[in-house]
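Milestone M4 deliverable, item 7.
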Amino acid sequence: PTSIRPPPAPPSMGGAPGQGMPPPPAYGQAAEPVGSYGMGGYANPEQVMGQFAALSMGGVAPGQATEVGVDPAQFPRPGASIPPPPRQEGNCDPAFMRMSVGALPNTAALKARWGLPLGAIVQPLTQEAEEVPLVDFGNSAIVRCRKCRTYINPFVQWTDGGRRFRCNLCNTLTEVPVEYFCTLDNNGMRRDAYERAELCRGSVEYAASSEYMVRPPMPPVYFFIVDVSTQAAASGVLQQICSTIKECLDQLPGDSRTQIGFMTYDATLHFYNLSPKLQAPQMMVVADLEGEPFLPVPTEDLLVNLAEARHVVDQLLDTLPAVTAALAPSPDSALGAALQAAHVAMAHVGGKLLVFQTTMPNLGAGRLRNRDNATLYGTDREASLRNPEDPFFKKMAAECSRVQVGVDLFSFAPQYTDLASLAALCKYTGGQVYYFPSFGAQRDGPKLAHDLKHNLLRETGWEAVMRIRCSRGLRISSFHGHFFIRSTDLLALPTVDGDKAYAVQIAHEENVMPTSHGYIQCALLYTTSGGERRIRVHTMCVPVVSDLGDMYKAADGACSAALLARLAVEKSLNSRLEDARQAVAARVVSVLKEYKAIYATAHRMPNKLVLPEGLKLVALYALAVMKCKAMRGAAKDVALDDRSAIAYHMMSMSLPATLRFLYPTLYPLHTLPDDCCEPGPDGALVMPTPVALASEVLDSRGCYLLDDGRILIAWVGRAAPAELLQDLFGAVGVADPLSLDVEHDNPLSKKVHKLLGAVRAGRDTFQQCFVVRQGDAIETHWMPYLVEDRTAGTMSYTDFLCHIHRNTSK
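Output delivered:
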């Protein structure tokens, strides 16, 4: 555990950057490491050490105390990466499914004493894990429990000489088919256990038979509806969309089965006949938006086989910007009618609907209004701003989910566009939101091209459903993410991919757990882009404990923080932001207060904050949740659409992406090591040592790069030497805009570009790099990323630890 004795009054942590800094190393020399996280340069360290009595970092057992002088440099912080918890043999890779606590309470009463969420983060198709073996039972049925339908896994118990197995979830005996029978060894294990992946691996993928199909597997289908209103035409986004789609056509998944279609809209709907029998595409305009949606041509000519109609599709993409411009675009938007028409066109097959929107819908069904009302903040009606006002988009999403249509939204609005309402289309169809406020072709074009290309070319599962089962005595109490719940525990996912994660909470179904181990199994049934029906199954075994202390020992603070972030976002949809922030702080206080009550006597530390090893970062991550863009401040701090976009992303982020977003990595560029981003002894790239997100760390004579997984920000100190600026940015004037994306012929610039490449590699979004000069007006956008600082209305890291200590001591 970690123990901290707080000062009577928390010291100020919000000094100006660069003040009180020690002399920096000469430019071009490496800095000496200071502290465990590069926190050197705190103002008045003697004062801080005098106010803090002791801090012992990790490895201190109950009954032991280590008196060490402390400064904030020794506060718990994440490293460049957080390793996953130990993995039990037979369990799935934690990248696929990771528990917030590696031990389950044996009673509901014990769980009630656990202040943090008890659940798991599930990312069934992630590419950041071991390869999943394919198991094909051929014409035979997949072996499953006859009662609860759990798939065979390494944790079943074999009886009757191998003729039957006892289900590890419901304890029911099931007889195995004759062709699956195998004798047992002296330990009661099948002799072929290590020859069959489903009996020794926690993750397997089954080739599904016809019994898992209600229709033949669907082909990959992509239908694009594009806003061509006046605002869209002025932004130049249409040219970027068309060029990117054309670039991807040869690589779209599905080979000869892939289907594609297009529609554009402003105040009218524009349909395109892409029949392969035509020499050129035909455009038809529908101006009547009232009544039932109307398709002016047969569905098979709107949604065509890409391989057969490739010449027509190419012509459309080459000429679409000019054709729509010649129509004299309207300033209005009939997005609702376009969605209804697209639904009719896709209903017979399903697929992915990509919506490109610039102007707020203001005609026909689904028209929206500007409801960004700052006076509602702090009132009981505040949460209504973050929820859809018109039920049209939620109903549309439900209809799309029913016919296996997933919706991805690309929004380019230059002003408020009610993203909270529009995002419902994606939320209930398993889709994604891409937000480019005030799109500029030069600034945002590369990001749009990357993100759209990644969306189209990543491996996608189609017409999917997912179910998560628990062993007897447990149940899944809630699901968190983007999906439509068809029944109590069946999640409908028209499209699914490796970037998306889902969260669940676990509760007791019985007062006492009847077994010594609990089990969780996730099963995802989906169609591959190649037309094969597959079932991906992940199984995990978790010990059941009767002592709360064992839960603290098995706690996974990283996963708990990711769950806590999702719950905070959901609470903000039903209450004031201030209430949601207080709920986060209260849960941290609750779990640490219980821990202190358990070990107060053993530690003999009545006046110290005691942090369990597994949860030593939970306070920092909780503070970061309260300060993130989705949760912080009020109307003036974050634009409403920005808040909605970030909240949407947080609900589907992977666990590593969530942690990176909450507490970004900050690299000092002026002291990069010589082997920066070169392969190390273990083959992994050598990354620079990050520094803490506090203003005291920032040397006004240096330059730093911040990475939160979504953008990159370079901060340049006002006293940075001219030779450093020359190496990083080339020959620029004092007022010239700076860019790190241009590589210059010097060692530092080459290392920085290696770092940019390493950071961006493998991300699901292109990270634009912005440069902020110290003292410039736009520095206000940089300051909220310094999570450990005190800002208006928020506590510093030191303040928050003191707040926790006061409340755990009551």
